[in-house]
Structure formats: C-alpha cells, structure tokens
Design brief:
By secondary structure, the chain is mainly α. Helix content is 69%, strand content 7%. It has helices at 25-34, 59-74, 79-89, 93-107, 112-117, 125-137, 140-186, 191-199, 205-217, 220-241, 244-255, 260-281, 286-296; strands at residues 3-9, 15-21, 38-45.
Length: 299
C-alpha cells in the first residue's frame, strides 16, 4: 500500500504532520477525520521498501502459516510469541526473513495487518484486509482461519487447472514442432515426385497448398524479414498488454473466444463473488471489499 504524507490541524488549531499507509487518499482523509484532525494537505509519497519486500512464498506455505498463527492465538499465546514461534520453526528462508521483519514491526507498535502489507508478494491484499478487519473487530483468529481455508482452496484449484492444461499444451507443442520439421525439411524431398502431377494439372489443391507453405517457409524473405517482424510485433503487443488499456482489450477478447470465452468469464465472476463474500463476512466494508476484488478478479 502507498504511503501518504499529510499536514493537518487539530481542534486547537495546532499544525500536525505525519505519514499514513492507506489504499487511497480518501481512506487517509477518513483516518484523519476519525482522529479529529482537519486535513490541510495530503500527498502520496514513495513507500519505503521493507527488507525482503520482494520475497515470494508459495500459497500452500502461506496457508499453513495462517492456520498455525490462528491456532497459537486461539490457544492464548501472545502475538509476538506466536510470530517468534513461527519464525523459528520454519525452514523456508524467504518466509523466515519475512516473519522476522513482521515480528520487528509489530514489536515497534504496528498492527499485524500493516506489517503484512509491507510484503505484497507473500501476503495478498485480501489476506491483509481480512486480518485488519479481524484485528479491529476482535475476531482475528477466525479471520486467519478463513484466509487459510480460502488460500488452500485457491491453490488446489490452481493446481488442478495447471494439471488439466499440461497435457493439451504438451501435445500442442509437440505437434507444432513435428509439423514444422516435416514442412521445412521433409516435404521438399517429395516435391519432385509431385512435379509430373502438377504439370498435368492433377495435383490436389491441398497438396499444392502444402508445397507452397513448404517453399515459403524456406524462403530467405520469411527467414530474415517475416519471422523477425513477427517477433518484434509480439514484443510490442506484450508491452501494450502490460498497460491498463492493453489488459482491458486482451481480457475483452478472451471472454469473446468461442466456447472458451464463457468459461473465462465464469471463472472471473466466481472468483469475484467468492472473495467478496469472504471479505464481507469478515467485516470489511462493502465499498472497500469491491475495490479490493476489482483489482484482483483476474479480468
């Protein structure tokens, strides 16, 4: 989450300055209002990167962490002691570094949600906001359990989806390689055999097309001009799809693909509804919950 530097005045008219971490400027204004401060100026600043902020931890590992932390807290173990236990027992170096930094931030007075927000590649936005809501509403253990359960479900669905796609992708890749090798190297060796049929006009159109593709694929124009042009075009399209407008176009095309499009759309809607319901169930305000899911719906 970004940091916002603010300048405000209290009820006595005294000038107060500081920094807050929030998702939007409107959220900063709400926090200041809750503190009886009148905002004079609010500016976004570059958030200071926490040590290990770019470290990534697999979702399955994080699900175990959430579940274990909930069990420790429910058993009466203090927050700092719970984080220390998790930090000492993990064998994952990335997770150990992250938990160490979270421990020190909580020790310095930060909430667990704010400390987790410093590591977006380990704790996703949904988990951070559910933990914040649980901490404020007094149901942190239940929130952690729900985050653990949801993370396990997401990882299980992701694993099954990848497993289902491996075989078709493998067949498609192998088929493409085999056909390319046949067209480029083997079809030309049989061209002479079909020459007489071509002269008599008895060569089928499909064979004519195959011979033309083979000759074109071996042409210097294709090798030195067309192929590099396709690579450059693909690179520029990739850069284009990294922009919000490009991603929107790509997602629109994806849901319009015959047969596959409705599946992509159903996945996006199901993901949105499932997480939105979880966030609302854990006390996250509806506008904040919709904002979170808007960015993470996958489309």
């Amino acid at each position: 989450m970004p940091d916002y530097a603010y300048t405000a005045r209290d009820s006595a008219g005294q000038k107060v300055s500081g920094t807050l971490s929030a998702a939007t400027e409107r959220e900063v204004l709400g926090i200041l209002s809750g503190r009886s401060l009148f905002p004079v100026e609010v500016k976004a600043t570059k958030a200071s990167a926490a040590p290990g902020a770019n470290l990534r931890v697999r979702g399955q590992v994080m699900a175990i962490v959430y579940s274990q932390l909930a069990a420790l807290l429910r058993g009466g173990v203090p927050m700092l002691k719970s984080l220390s236990v998790l930090r000492e027992q993990t064998s994952n170096k990335n997770l150990k570094a992250i938990l160490d930094e979270v421990y020190h931030r909580v020790e310095d007075g930060s909430t667990l949600g704010d400390a987790m927000a410093r590591f977006p590649r380990a704790f996703n936005e949904m988990a951070v906001n559910m933990v914040r809501a649980g901490g404020e509403g007094g149901f942190l253990e239940d929130a952690l359990d729900r985050v653990a359960s949801f993370t396990e479900q997401q990882e299980d669905l992701k694993g099954r989806t990848i497993s289902a796609m491996v075989y078709p992708l493998l067949l498609g890749t192998a088929g493409t390689i085999v056909v390319t090798v046949l067209v480029v190297f083997f079809v030309p060796k049989f061209a002479v055999m079909f020459e007489r049929l071509r002269e008599r006009g008895e060569l089928p159109w499909a064979t004519e097309l195959l011979l033309w593709i083979s000759e074109s694929a071996r042409s210097p124009v294709v090798v030195f001009l067309v192929v590099p042009s396709i690579i450059v075009l693909g690179f520029f399209l990739y850069l284009r799809f990294q922009t919000p407008e490009g991603r929107r176009t790509a997602d629109y095309v994806r849901i319009k693909i015959p047969m596959a499009g409705p599946i992509f759309l159903s996945f996006a809607v199901a993901r949105f509804c499932r997480v939105l319901g979880t966030l609302l169930h854990n006390g996250v305000p509806i506008l904040k919950a919709i904002e979170i899911r808007r960015e993470a719906s996958g489309n």
